[in-house]
Amino acid sequence: MWRFFRVVFSLIIVAVIIYGVLSVRPYRVTGDSMMPNLIDQELVITDRISTHFVPLQRWEIIVYRDMENGWEVKIKRILGLPKEKIEIAEGKVMLIDWTKKNDIEERYLEEHVHTCLPWSCTDLSSRTFDIPVNSYFVLGDNRGSSRDSRGCSDIANCDHPPVYIPDVEILGRVFVSF
Length: 178
Hints:
- The protein is mainly beta.
- Helices cover 12% and strands 33% of the residues.
- The chain contains one helix and eleven strands.
- It has one helix at 2-23, and strands spanning 24-28, 43-47, 61-66, 72-80, 85-89, 92-97, 100-103, 127-130, 135-139, 165-166, 170-177.
- The chain has a seven-stranded antiparallel sheet. It has a four-stranded antiparallel sheet with strand order 7-6-5-8, with no helix packed on it.
- The radius of gyration is 19 Å and the shape is elongated.
C-alpha cells in the first residue's frame, strides 16, 4: 500500500515539475504603465498553459508581445473581451451590451484616476472600441502613461488607431508578483 502512495506522490511531483518547466515564466515590469499595482523592475510570474484551457477574464493582468513595437514584452490589464464593445467616455470605461451601457468597475485604481481618450483628457467626448474575435482590449493601470489599446502613450497628442491584442501574442496570465 505504501508503495502505491510513493508512486502516486512521485508522479505528482514529476507532473508539477514538468508543468513548471513548460508553463511558468518570470518577466520583469519595465516602466510605470501599471503603477501603482505593479512598479518598475518588479518581477511577475506567469502561467502560459492555462490560457489555452481556461478563458482569460476581465481584470486579469497578462504579458504579451507587442508585434508593432519590435516584439517588445508588455504587461497590461484586460478590460475588454473578444467580440465586446467598449466605450470610453467622461473618464470611465463602459461595456456596451446591446443598447445598455454598464460602467466597468475598477477597484484596483485610485479614486482620482480617469481613463482619458488618447487625444485629450479635457475632451469628454466618447469613443467606442469594437473588439475583434480572438482579441482583447487592454489598459495600463497608470492611465496617463500607458501605451495600450487606446493606441498611444502620449494621450495629449495621438491619432493612432486602437491596438487590440490577438490571443496568439499573449504569453501568459500573471498569477503572482513581487
